Amino acid sequence: MKTFKNLFVICCTLFLLQSCIVSSKPNIAFFSNADYDYEDAQFASVNVPLFLAKPFIKQTLKNDGESEAVIAMVKKVSKIKMMTVANGSEKLMKDYASYLKNENYEDWATIKHEGENVNIKVKQKGETINNMLITVNSKKDLVFLDVRGSFTADDISNMINIATDK
């Protein structure tokens, strides 16, 4: 019976961690279009299981001396997808921006830092922001974060202010 319990625990752990495996396929909608020519772009995607990651993120933020506002923001996150694109083209970024506009995403902020552009776009329903897309553009290398949750405009503004202060 003890062996069965151990095997069950190992199988459950492996099942829960399988979403942590990095994939070479895109996990963000625009980049999953089979008809689009991505040229030499290379993708790496990660779906972050938040029930495993949230405790580590909160503890790291506390250890780094982050404010309670940042930690409270993490509590509102329900899903995170991350994707990197190597060898992305300018045309790819323009088409992605056009796609987001058609999907009713609003430009919220653009932060320029050490030659990189950080762009934040949000999709909201009424007063609630359901989806936030954060894009870090460094010439041909791109990082995309698709953050889902239930945020307010004040939450996003506070996050932007904290990021720009540092």
Note the main attributes of this structure.
alpha+beta; single chain; about 40% helix; 6 strands; disordered N terminus
Describe the protein:
It contains 5 helices and 6 strands; from the N terminus they run H-E-H-H-E-H-E-E-E-E-H. It is α+β, with helices and mostly antiparallel strands and 166 residues long. Strands 1-2-6-5-4-3 form a 6-stranded antiparallel β-sheet. Helix 2 (50-63) packs antiparallel against helix 3. The radius of gyration is 18 Å and the shape is globular. 13% of the residues are buried.
Largest sheet, if any?
6 strands, antiparallel
> In total, how many beta strands?
6
Task: Give the spatial strand order of the biggest sheet.
Answer: 1-2-6-5-4-3
Following the backbone from N to C, one meets helices and strands in this order, namely HEHHEHEEEEH
Mean pLDDT across the residues is: 77
Radius of gyration: 18 Å
Percent helix, as a range, is 25-40%
The termini sit apart by 54 Å
* Count of alpha/pi helices: 5
Q: What would you call the shape?
A: globular
The protein's oligomeric status is single chain
Indicate the low-confidence ranges by residue numbers.
1-9
Structural class: alpha+beta
Residues in β-strands, percent = 25-35%
Topology overview:
Blueprint: H1 2-17, E1 42-48, H2 50-63, H3 68-75, E2 77-86, H4 90-102, E3 106-113, E4 116-125, E5 128-138, E6 141-151, H5 153-165
Antiparallel strand pairs: 1-2, 2-6, 3-4, 4-5, 5-6
Helix pairs in contact: 2-3
Summary, kept brief:
The chain is an alpha+beta fold.
